């Protein structure tokens, strides 16, 4: 998706493991991968100017998207599907843990604002 907006996209994994499949996809889209751990994000006036790696050259950048994972749902013991999304009851958005409801991207279903809002409303009603 990023490549529709800008040519110079770089993926950074902060020293974490990257699957062979993810590496292949990045290659297919001609997206370089920086494997080194990130030391810091630097900028001026609240705007990013560069990503500093623990080793290797800095990467000048004006923007950064990051993936936060599903750590809270994992800690709560919510059942997850093969894609890592939290499994929910489609009628109530309740998870496998009674009383825990989720809405939005955490279910990794359809990742759209309208869907997140609808799921939130459904959970609130339930
Ligand atoms: C580049 C991009 C473009 C997109 N374009 C579109 C589009 O054109 N149309 C569309 O419908 N959808 C679009 N989407 C998808 C859309 O942004 C998501 O589906 C939607 O934002 C999901 O809402 P959410 O509430 O689940 O998650 P988010 O909007 O990601 O909200 C989660 C919030 O939780 C906060 N948070 C996370 N962890 C913690 C914590 N531990 N403590 C406190 N707060 C925390 C985060 O900071 C964030 O504010 C786009 C997504 C991306 C990445």
Distance from first to last alpha carbon? 34 Å
CATH class of the largest domain: Alpha Beta
Low-confidence stretches: none
Strand elements, count: 5
What bound compounds does this protein have?
A: flavin-adenine dinucleotide
Please tell me what the overall shape is.
Answer: elongated
Biggest pleated-sheet summary = 3 strands, antiparallel
Residue share in β-strands: 15-25%
Q: Tell me the name of the CATH homologous superfamily of the largest domain.
A: FAD/NAD(P)-binding domain
CATH architecture of the largest domain: 3-Layer(bba) Sandwich
Mean pLDDT value: 92
Helix and strand run: HEHEEEEHH
Give the domain tally: 2
Task: Describe this structure in a few short sentences.
The protein has about 130 residues and is α+β, with helices and mostly antiparallel strands. The protein has helices at about 1-5, 20-30, 70-75, 115-125, and strands at about 10, 35, 40-45, 45-55, 60.
Structural overview:
The chain is an alpha+beta fold and 126 residues long. It has two domains: 2-60, FAD/NAD(P)-binding domain, CATH 3.50.50; 71-125, no CATH class. The chain contains four helices and five strands; from the N terminus they run αβαββββαα. The strands form two sheets. It has a three-stranded antiparallel sheet with strand order 3-4-5, with no helix packed on it. Strands 1-2 form a two-stranded parallel sheet. The mean pLDDT is 92. Flavin-adenine dinucleotide is lined by residues 65, 68, 104-105, 111-114, 116.
């Amino acid at each position: 998706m990023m490549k529709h907006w800008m040519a110079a996209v770089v993926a950074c994994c902060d020293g974490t493991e990257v699957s062979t499949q993810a590496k292949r996809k990045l290659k297919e889209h001609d997206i370089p991968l920086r494997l080194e751990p990130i030391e810091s994000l630097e900028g001026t006036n609240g705007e990013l100017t560069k990503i500093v790696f623990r080793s290797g050259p800095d990467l000048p950048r004006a923007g950064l998207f990051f993936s936060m994972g599903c750590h809270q749902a994992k800690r709560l013991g919510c059942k997850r599907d093969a894609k890592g999304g939290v499994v929910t009851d489609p009628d109530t958005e309740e998870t496998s843990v009674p009383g825990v409801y989720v809405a939005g991207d955490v279910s990794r279903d359809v990742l759209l604002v309208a869907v997140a809002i609808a799921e939130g409303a459904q959970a609130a009603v339930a």
